[in-house]
UniProtKB/TrEMBL annotation:
<feature type="region of interest" description="Disordered">
    <location>
        <begin position="256"/>
        <end position="398"/>
    </location>
</feature>
<feature type="compositionally biased region" description="Low complexity">
    <location>
        <begin position="37"/>
        <end position="50"/>
    </location>
</feature>
<feature type="domain" description="Homeobox">
    <location>
        <begin position="187"/>
        <end position="247"/>
    </location>
</feature>
<feature type="compositionally biased region" description="Low complexity">
    <location>
        <begin position="379"/>
        <end position="388"/>
    </location>
</feature>
<feature type="compositionally biased region" description="Polar residues">
    <location>
        <begin position="256"/>
        <end position="269"/>
    </location>
</feature>
<protein>
    <recommendedName>
        <fullName>Homeobox protein cut-like</fullName>
    </recommendedName>
</protein>
<feature type="compositionally biased region" description="Low complexity">
    <location>
        <begin position="1"/>
        <end position="11"/>
    </location>
</feature>
<feature type="DNA-binding region" description="Homeobox">
    <location>
        <begin position="189"/>
        <end position="248"/>
    </location>
</feature>
<feature type="domain" description="CUT">
    <location>
        <begin position="62"/>
        <end position="149"/>
    </location>
</feature>
<feature type="region of interest" description="Disordered">
    <location>
        <begin position="1"/>
        <end position="54"/>
    </location>
</feature>
<feature type="region of interest" description="Disordered">
    <location>
        <begin position="155"/>
        <end position="192"/>
    </location>
</feature>
<feature type="compositionally biased region" description="Low complexity">
    <location>
        <begin position="349"/>
        <end position="370"/>
    </location>
</feature>
<comment type="similarity">
    <text>Belongs to the CUT homeobox family.</text>
</comment>
<feature type="compositionally biased region" description="Low complexity">
    <location>
        <begin position="162"/>
        <end position="172"/>
    </location>
</feature>
<feature type="compositionally biased region" description="Polar residues">
    <location>
        <begin position="389"/>
        <end position="398"/>
    </location>
</feature>
Length: 449
DNA sequence: TTAAAGTCAATAGA
DNA sequence: TCTATTGACTTTAA
């Protein structure tokens, strides 16, 4: 793929050695502290440690992460996906044995990798692991072995359990009664997972469009209106914001790759929604990074519109339908949403019924629901470049860089990224400016419940 | 204290 | 069975 030439192969081995071999071939600085072969310690150790380099590897994973040069997260996930599918290896297996993550997390990570520079140390870890794994010549083999072993174990278990009937049942559900008293098993009553109804989600999205950072009061009102727990509403906003952000990241990447040379190689490349937002809107919301105005969103956060506002993240679920919503501004940076707009704009198809949800159906509740359309548009591939931050400069980093095998690519990418960044910055400023204007003009956004 | 980041784990769908 | 989605929780940072 992209950096085709270099990537994998060679870098690979060196890194592999670094990680697996008792004596690191290349590396320089890291010296030997400790070392140990961490050969996939794990992989084979099967049950014990799920993680390959966990525990005692020469360099702890954290160290590797810390010293790692900028990695192309998008490219890495792309390759990992390829390898996994080509070899019929599942995310669960991969996640548990290689990354130490659950299937859902892996899925998410592979589908929506954040750019390196946006990741915290912790967040970079899985990518470093993936890179190491990709570099390991025996990666597939090892995983296959694991798979076989698991299967064997499963069969065995199954076998025995069959003979003595309920072993499984008892373990999971029944049993506890025996204890009678034991209080704890009791609250095993896990609370059921909340599943928001489509109308509820719609309402929340609408609310988000007006105020991505709703005040406690607003949250309270929303919760009441929707008959949800406040915590649910709060969580929803947190999750939505963060997911939108990620969605935008990947759009950004795609946009970048598209504008660039080209997605020559990626098969799926062009299919994606080409439209993915003119880069104009692709960034605003995102770069805002923190709570808008820097200050922790308080209630005040609501009052002035904040730049981060962005109508729907188009990448998210309801994109298209909602596209209508954005349509008008599509070619320009999202205009600061006028307060209230969202609601009005929404074509109110409102199936009258919605009420299904809870109580009162009021503005929020009635808006039409356009959810659905989720084609998560294929996210394409092609040039991965994600990051931009120049790789760290220490020698250590350098050596590592060579270990990870990239570097030139990264630098070349940087230029492109920076220009993109500039563009975005300008765009952002523009938006902010407009928002300010709008804010001074019309302040109050009332929730009409 | 709040928001973001990172995950888990339940679930829905294929 | 496997993957994708998503509400909730935990940790981290400001």
């Amino acid at each position: 793929a992209p950096e085709s030439p270099m990537s994998s192969s060679e870098s690979v081995k060196s890194l592999t050695e670094l990680v697996q071999q008792p004596c690191p071939a290349i590396d320089t600085s890291k010296d030997g502290k400790s070392q140990e072969s961490s050969e996939p310690p794990v992989s084979e150790s099967q049950s014990t440690t799920p993680l390959p380099l966990s525990g005692h590897s020469a360099l702890s994973i954290q160290e590797l992460v810390a010293m790692s040069p900028e990695l192309d997260t998008y490219g890495i996930t792309k390759r990992v996906k390829e390898v996994l599918t080509d070899n019929n290896l599942g995310q669960r297996l991969f996640g548990e044995t290689i990354l130490g993550l659950t299937q859902g997390s892996v899925s998410d990570l592979l589908a929506r990798p954040k750019p390196w520079h946006k990741l915290s140390l912790k967040g970079r870890e899985p990518f470093v692991r993936m890179q190491l794994w990709l570099n390991d010549p025996n990666n597939v083999e090892k995983l296959m072995d694991m798979k076989r072993m698991e299967k064997k174990a499963y069969m065995k278990r199954r076998h025995s359990s069959v003979s003595d009937s309920q072993s499984c049942e008892s373990s999971s559900a029944g049993i506890d009664y025996s204890q009678g008293a034991s209080p704890q098993p009791q609250h095993q009553l896990k609370k059921p997972r909340v599943v928001l109804a489509p109308e509820e989600k719609e309402a929340l999205k609408r609310a988000y469009q007006q105020k991505p950072y709703p005040s406690p009061k607003t949250i309270e009102e929303l919760a009441t209106q929707l008959n949800l727990k406040t915590s649910t509403v709060i969580n929803w906003f947190h999750n939505y914001r963060s997911r939108i952000r990620r969605e935008l990241f990947i759009e950004e990447i795609q946009a970048g790759s598209q504008s660039t040379a080209g997605s020559s190689d990626s098969p799926s490349a062009r299919s994606g929604r080409a439209a993915h937002s003119s880069e104009g809107d692709s960034c605003d919301g995102v770069d805002a990074e923190g709570p808008p105005d820097g200050k922790p969103s308080g209630p005040e956060a609501l009052r002035g519109a904040r730049p981060s506002e962005r109508a729907e993240p188009e990448g998210l679920e309801d994109t298209d339908d909602e596209g209508r919503l954005r349509a008008p501004r599509q070619s320009s940076p999202p205009a600061p949403q006028r307060p209230g707009d969202a609601l009005e704009t929404l074509p109110n198809s409102a199936t009258e019924g919605d009420a299904s949800t809870s109580a009162a159906s009021t503005s929020v509740l009635t808006g039409e629901s356009s959810y659905k359309s989720k084609e998560s548009s294929e996210k394409i591939s092609s040039v991965p470049s994600t990051s931009s931050t120049p790789a760290a400069g220490s020698q250590k980093a350098n050596s590592l860089q060579s270990l990870f095998g990239f570097s030139e690519a990264a630098s070349s990418r940087n230029t492109r990224d920076s220009s993109l960044r500039k563009k975005k910055a300008a765009n952002l400023n523009n938006i902010i400016h407009r928002l300010e204007k709008a804010a001074s003009r019309e302040e109050a956004v009332e929730w009409e419940f």
